[in-house]
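SECTION: protein entry
WANTED: fold as tokens:
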Amino acid sequence: MDAIILQILNGLDKGSAYALIALGLTLIFGTLGVVNFAHGALFMIGAFCSVTLAKLLNLSFETVDPTQKDFLGNPLKVKTPYIESWFGPEVGATIIDWSVPLAILFAIPIMLVVGYVMERGLIKHFYKRPHADQILVTFGLAIVLQEIIKFYFGANPIQTPAPDALSGVASVGGAVGLNIAYPIWRLCYIAFSLLLIGGAFAFLQFTTFGMVVRAGMADRETVQLLGIDIDRRFTIMFGLAAAIAGLAGVMYGPINAPNYHMGMDFLVLSFVVVVVGGMGSLPGAVLAGFLLGILEAFASTTWATTTIPGINQIIIYLVAIIVLLTRPRGLMGKKGVMED
């Protein structure tokens, strides 16, 4: 039972990233009808927002410490972060230690601006173009963004450690007689993902803005005839989808060190998640993300990889084939979506 619960947690961990990226992809497709192959790049940019904030917080100046001597007896030069000189050593060190959670606040406006510029500057010109054109242009944009990150940050992964208070392991299941040690940060990532997904659904379901957006997704022309500027609202939704992908990347940094190709690594799998869940279905994208994450976790066990070598690399695609053969619209897909 311990092993089963452990693999479920591993699946929820990976599935959280799939679900968040797939949720943003589906929001963009459902509102704008655009197949956005640059969405994985937004996940990558979010991860590098945390890297950038950590570098900014660690900016320092040199001072001479007469109490410390080198081997020649000369006073040593020590580097002191500006943040520590402004707020004091203890508060400054705490701020630096919590740079990844603080990067959430840093990344939100950046991702909103990136999403707005991307939609207004490029994607709006492809609304009425074939999906093949949308895929080509957004895939090209993803490569450009990837190379920009590589140029400024290098090709090697950059470590973004979790805060010391959240970098250990926690005992899970003690109340029911289980003894499972699991990294605290991964549990935080799962909880954060569920909170973000719940917030997105609540925003769409219970706010006036969200209700208008859902109406526009169902019948764009009728909403426009009512005098509502639905295009502006859809542009805002593109920015929100970019922010969701970015925040997923921010919090994923301590799990997998940010690198310039991490967006591409998640992009293809996330599109498979969207297709399995059903094109245009937000609940389907989230459900498929968690289900496929759990299946991938069980397929990565020693027993599975020994019995069927390489099964962990292909399990998601096998499930996608089976689902599409039995349910061509996906698990929760709707009639008429990408069927014209």
